[in-house]
Amino acid sequence: MSKVAFIFPGQGSQSVGMCKDLYDNYACARRTFEEADEALGFSISKLCFEGPEDQLRLTFNTQPAILTASVACARVLAENGVTCEIAAGHSLGEYSALVQAEALDFADAVRIVRKRGQFMQEAVPVGEGSMAAVLGMDSDKIVEICRGVEAECGEAVQAVNFNCPGQVVIAGAVGAVDKALVALKEAGAKRAVLLPVSAPFHSTLLQPASERLAEVFKTITFHDAKIPVMANVNAEEVTKGEVIKESLIRQAAMPVLWETGVRKMIAGGVDTFVEVGPGKVLCGFNKKIDKSVTSLNVEDEASLAKTLAYFQEVR
Question: Helix or strand or coil: residue 162?
Fold first, then answer.
């Protein structure tokens, strides 16, 4: 049986002006941004639509901004009769997926990811951690090389995002990441490039952020999900509120098993993926994971029109 999955983007997909036309033309999108503004106590809407870009790029602003834009897009889809049987999100996007699954209230999610961004940045001072994308090398080999560098120099460096065949992201202390890049290139990686980020997301260096999130979660209600959500930490479907909470606590300092999760969704009957929110990064990963699946996206009126036309045709 064919299924539809909504997949939600993570940090890096933001852009000034994102979702402005949906905000202007759909009351449900407008309400979403207004709810976020109220929950945060400042105008994340203004930051999304007008910038400045350097402020939008700050982790503790980026995370609630992308979440809000993604949920607005999902609500517009729902208003047009398009829903999903399963959801997943890349890193930050997992929170958007949990809002979609009604496991997490939107206002709570917005406040959580604002703090999550703050905790992640404060766990490792700016300039002490970095991330890099490694292209064209087997993931097991990347893991092995990182472990060797880590053992040799005594500083953290790990494979943290297993995105798609031929693309793995590593993260850790600046010196260890630099050494790993040299070793990876010598071992045959096609490319290994530093990423413009301010913290080593999903590495063990982010453990303090996980611990602080655990404290915040004591005040948050996690509901049982109405649809399964594919968890980043183990690429397993989760529905129970308590399991979801534990998974999110671990997620900040553990690798994102994105490729495995997508393959499991496909094996479970998903043949259509809709990337819901700014950008088309996850659609790009899908093309490398399995070209036979349909990948659509919704981030503005033009992409919404294409996606709605597709569903009108196939249903």
Answer: strand
Residues whose CB is less than 8 angstroms from the CB of residue 217 and which lie 6 or more positions away in sequence, other chains included? 112, 245, 248, 249
How far apart are alpha carbons 257 and 140 in whole angstroms? Answer: 13
Residues in the chain: 315
Q: Which residues have a Cβ under 8 Å from the Cβ of 144 and sit 6 or more positions away?
A: none
How do beta strands 86-89 and 3-8 pair?
A: parallel
Query: What residues are annotated to the active site?
Result: 91, 202
pLDDT digits (tens, 9 = 90+) for 28-64: 999 999 999 999 999 999 999 999 999 998 999 999 9
Q: Quick one: what percent of the chain has pLDDT higher than 70?
A: 99
- The two structure tokens encoding residue 66: 């992308």
Average pLDDT of the residues in 260-284: 98
Host H or E run for residue 296: strand 294-298
Is it the case that residue 264 has pLDDT exceeding 70? yes
CA-nearest of 144, 40, 88, 145 to 277 is: 88
**Contacts (Cβ under 8 Å, ≥6 apart) of 295:** 272, 273, 274, 275, 282, 283, 286, 287
Residue 258: how many other CB atoms lie within 10 Å: 27
pLDDT at 271 over 70: yes
- Give the global pTM: 0.97
Is the pLDDT assigned to residue 255 strictly greater than 70? yes
218 near 211, Cβ under 8 Å? no
CA–CA–CA angle 253, 255, 257 (5° rounding): 145
State whether residue 199 is helix, strand or coil: coil
